[in-house]
Amino acid sequence: MDKFEKIAAETRRNAEARGHSYREQALKLFPWVCARCNREFNRKNLSELTVHHKDHNHDNNPADGSNWELLCLYCHDHEHQKYLGGSTGITASNELERDVSKGKPFEKLKEILNYKEK
Questions:
Q1: Model pTM?
Q2: Which terminus of the chain, N or C, has fewer Cβ atoms within 10 Å?
Q3: Angstrom distance (rounded) from CA 76 to CA 117
Q4: Helices (H), strands (E): how many in the chain?
């Protein structure tokens, strides 16, 4: 195993250990219900309930759970799609974000600025 592989393996182990600790805490703190769709969970389907970080920072894990909410797999995926500017529709602001990611941040600026005039 080369140096890169060792670092990657250690990073995965640390992330997994961190994930288990805050997941266990969140499951003790909150009812086993999706905070978005209100689907209820039990021991049989608990693996489909995820811990979502409200500020999207996985290192921000206060013991009181104030940065967490429990979401089902589907609502969690939807939440991250919104955050990443996915399938929620194109707006002027996320159109600019998409252009930045392509390396052409001002390509549609004139069109966006004239948006209200149309």
A1: 0.57
A2: C
A3: 37
A4: 4, 2
Domain count within the chain: 2
Please check whether residues 14 and 43 belong to one and the same domain: yes
SS (H, E, C) 41-67: CCCCCHHHEEEEECCCCCCCCCCCCCC
Structural domain of 103: 89-118
pLDDT in tens, 62-82: 989 999 999 999 999 998 888
19-40, pLDDT tens digit by residue?
A: 568 888 999 999 999 999 999 9
CATH value at residue 19: 3.40.1800
Q: Which amino acid is at 113?
A: L
Question: Which of 93, 77, 95 minimizes the C-alpha distance to 36?
Answer: 77
Of 102, 107, 104, 15, nearest to 61 (Cα)?
A: 15
